[in-house]
Amino acid sequence: MCDTMCIMPNYSTDGLAYFAKNSDRSPNEPLLTLRVPAANHKPDTMLQCTYIAIPQVKHTREIIICKPSWMWGAEMGVNDARVAIGNEAVFTKARRGKPF
Asked: What pTM was estimated for this model as a whole?
């Protein structure tokens, strides 16, 4: 399983926030580090994700992310507004109910 840690500014000795995350992927699965610049997009364009296409937003922020080479999206990253993300797998033995 992955591990994620966040230290908020009021708990750090220098008043800064810290975010850390590891990835438990196979050693043979490349994890790319990418910088994607901010961009403006044309109206009515679609964004192709790994399995689906979604409407593209008008403006995207600059990001630095780490991602598996085969998928769209990020395992972890941060944008130019200092918003950090990290995904986690959730394992459960609970049974799923009927879809709504």
From this structure: 0.77
